[in-house]
Specification:
Blueprint: E1 4-7, E2 32-38, E3 41-47, H1 48-60, E4 62-65, H2 71-75, E5 86-89, E6 94-97, E7 100-101, H3 103-116, H4 120-130, E8 136-142, E9 146-151, H5 158-169, E10 173-178, E11 181-186, H6 191-202, E12 207-210, H7 217-222, E13 225-228, H8 233-236, E14 244-246, H9 252-267
Parallel strand pairs: 1-4, 1-12, 12-13, 13-14
Antiparallel strand pairs: 2-3, 5-6, 6-7, 8-9, 9-11, 10-11
Length: about 270
């Protein structure tokens, strides 16, 4: 019975130029493969070695991309290996099956959010009212499920983020700061719930996961075994838990190491 591997994408398996963390001498830098183009420009990369590992992983397990990206943002990524049958988008708000939204799953998610959380309109209004245009560059709503701001990180007041998190928590929402983006996401909107649904459908007996941010913590905790890189929100607070392995590698080489660990575990006798 194949294992199920659910992995975050950005800053876990794929990396923007700014997130590569190529600290070695130029002559020793790994060869890179572009896996995303946006507006005719290369945007995201993985090492060629990681691309080979992901191809092998796709052949050996049920590989499930699990991303906070919207469906449109996810679909411009061209990952190596077999096309994943399942994908988790919008932090669990959409479960894609062969590239199409599972409408029953989406309806269940919307019903739960309506029961348990303040409406998106209230949260978005608060974000726009309290954020300072001096450091806000863009504001976006993702698939009518959650909101985020793109900010100038060096100008962003730390106290504002803390106040936003406390305000959101009282309304059933969570706040996550990832690079230049501040996400406000309903607490029940989780990657782990979607992973459990895929595990049920595939009948897998082993779930593995990887991720770097606060929005990935529930996914890492829900899997049988998990990995996080040496960078990101979770690493910044030295977060770990039983069954979660903290790796030392940072940047694009962390993605390569994560794939090695996943493939080794999938191939091990059980």
């Amino acid at each position: 019975m194949p294992a199920l591997v659910a992995s975050d994408l950005d800053r876990t398996l794929i990396y923007s130029a700014a997130a590569l963390a190529l600290t070695m001498p130029d002559a020793r830098a790994p060869r890179l493969l572009c896996v995303e183009v946006h507006e005719s420009k290369p945007l995201s990369y993985m090492t060629e070695t990681a691309a080979g590992l992901l191809t092998d992983l796709g052949d050996a397990a049920v590989f499930v991309p699990a991303t906070t990206r919207t469906r449109k943002q996810y679909q411009r990524i061209n990952l190596p290996g077999p096309p994943p049958r399942f994908a988790i988008c919008a932090n669990g708000g959409h479960l894609l099956v062969d590239g199409e939204t599972d409408r029953d799953w989406h309806a269940r998610v919307l019903a739960r959010l309506a029961d348990e959380c303040a409406p998106l309109s209230e949260v978005r209004e608060h974000l726009l009212r309290t954020a300072d245009p001096v450091w806000v560059r863009k504001q976006r709503v993702a698939d009518d499920l959650f909101a985020y701001l793109v900010v100038e990180r060096e100008l962003l007041p730390e106290e504002w983020v803390k106040e936003l998190a406390a305000w959101a928590e009282n309304r059933g929402w969570t706040v996550s700061l990832q690079g230049r983006k501040i996400y406000a996401v309903p607490a029940p909107l989780t990657k782990s719930a979607a992973m459990h649904e895929i595990a049920r459908r595939t009948g897998t007996d082993l779930t593995l996961a990887a991720g770097d941010s606060l929005l990935d913590a529930d996914l890492l905790l829900a899997a049988d075994r998990s990995w996080r890189p040496g960078h990101g929100e979770l690493a910044d607070v030295d977060w770990t838990a039983p069954g979660v392995r903290a790796l030392p590698e940072r940047g694009v080489l962390a993605g390569e190491r994560i794939l090695r660990e996943l493939l080794r575990t999938v191939r091990a006798p059980r």
